[in-house]
# Entry
Amino acid sequence: MEIFLIILALVYLVYASISDLKKREIPNWLSFSLIVFALAYRAFISAINLDLWYFIFGLLGLGVFVALGYGFYYARIFAGGDAKLLMAFGAVLPVSGFYSSLISSFAFIFLILFCGSIYGIIWSFYLILGNWKNFSSEFLKQAGKNKKLFYFSLALAVILIFLPVYSHDWILALIPVIFFLFPLLFIFAKAVEESCMIIDVKTSKLTEGDWLYEKVKIGRKTIKPYWEGLSLEEIKILRKYKGKVKIKQGIPFVPAFFFAFVVLIYLYLTNSSVLNILGIFF
# Structure
């Protein structure tokens, strides 16, 4: 990867991380300007070296990551700001050569999900430390509501524990473990969400895209929670008739992008065998 694109991406990621941590939002201009600067640089280098492919790889990467961004957004894995930032990295990541571009792109996606999982767990425990009393009572409440799921998963885990015995493939022992852990992780996540991520916000402080926690009825009109968040029109109505509403906060996820990109740079600079292993799958 080009040193200029690396530095450019790091600068943007630092700014985006700070914005996400402080305001829980990633400005649209940030993602769009990263696309413009990355493609402009590629066009400049292509013109100097008379190599059109360097620019074309940026366009192809952008197209692929736009598709991935929309996929993650509509699958409700990423919020809108995260999806747009991911799209922008499609113009940054592709290097010279189709195979290298493919590996770098999918390695970044894998690292985002991996780093994001670890980061999400750490952030959840950080939230719990400040809301232990609320979390503990909510965890017991969620455990009671989902006890059928827990018993069902436990029964499956007990049945499937015999798989490695009969197949003599002990890697299959992971399957019952996964079935056993799933309800616990689900209950844990729901308890964190309900006890640590629901806050009262003054309507004057609402911003476009904020997630409404529960429906709000104003006269004959009902504003319902929606994945895309509040629109500007809905915010205007709420500000006119309501003082406060409950908003569901998400985990500020951009720092996971930052960690994933730093790890990717390290793997490239050290010519790590991890990239070769990823090449087997992509």
